[in-house]
Amino acid sequence: MLALPENQQLIYKQFAVTFTNLGHAYCEKGNRLVDSDRATAPTYFAKAIKVLQTAKQNTRFFPSAEYDEAVHDTYYYTALSYHKLYLITKQPAVMNSASLAWREYFDFFPKKLEGNPAFVQAREGRDGTAIRSRNSNRAAPNAMHLRRPVMTLLVAIALPVGAGEEPVTSSPGEPAGIEPEFVRPLVPIARGRNDSNPVWSPTGDMVAFERSRGDNKEIAIVRANGDIVQIIHQQASAGPGQSPFFFPEVVAEQTSYNSGISWSPSGKRFVFMSNGGEGNYDLYLREPDGRITRITTHREKDGHAHWSPARDQIAFISGRSGKGDVYLLDLATKATTRLTHGEWPYLYPQWSPDGKRLAVIQGINENHDVYVLETGHNPPVPPMPLSTWRYDDLRPVWSPTASASRSTPITTPPTIPRPGPS
Predict the structure, then answer these.
(1) Which class is 185-411 in CATH?
(2) Peptide bond before 379: cis, by omega within 30 degrees of 0?
(3) Predicted pLDDT at 33
(4) pTM higher than the cut 0.70
């Protein structure tokens, strides 16, 4: 029951700060093992990163009395765990993650903790760590004593490594690194908000991204030059004598949560998930003229939508089966078809480029695997397992040349060592 998608948010709300404390404990355990058991230490840094990432996604549920300290510890121990992991593994991908984590730590350093000696010392010393960038005569950005007020979206133009530059050390067969020609903020930097998860429109003229303000999460649509096109803060209208929203344990303010952007192939519309300010998560369309249309109305949570690249069909995950299954919505007929009957919840369906298959993950807790689902069959055929590891396989990405007539070219991001049993 705890793994059901509809229960996840309640779990995070109740135990969000516990993930931070657990991550801190795993990080400290890894530190103690670095000298005595160097082979086992990475496992605990990996465990720390996993639970701290969960805490980062749920900071809005931190207790108000401990909020600033909990935010600080979440970002600090995430960065420190990545850093310690890199010092052992020397993997370039882990180094990049560590650099980004330190940047985020500076971005999110709570203003109320400025002047507090203990926290300022952590910020300025960062436990004595420093990762060098590709040029050995300059420190990476995370080694600078700088702090920006919030996370902001950046636009980068990247070029191959030039003559005289020292490339990042990579394993045999890995492509050479690239050096950005310039990096600029996509939108102005401002306090009180965090921008994340940018998605380019297929036509390349707009970017849609998620913007968090306190408990609320909006969707912003901007042009490539940063001009705002629209801000989506979906709010249901109330009937006579009714509250316009419902959200467990929230009384004083309306909470609108909008996320999970997937563009149509034409780039004129996109689908996203929203609670409409009323607590029930459904799928919505953003039309070319800016209108917002609700396209699912089930009482259970609908989300993780992905628009087919070949037709006006949307694959999504719904809790209406009681487990979290894959469904297909045909926008022309409004028909909804259930594609899976899983024992465990499915997550994050991703269409193949030809629109004939879906890559999905399925599992619970720390054991998710990747499956491939052939669509267009009646009745639907069970998904085929692509991976069967003991721990997590996440975020499958199709090759742009993948087709139904070829083998299954799916990649996953570079992974940190898999956590072992506690």
Answers:
(1) mainly beta
(2) yes
(3) 94
(4) no
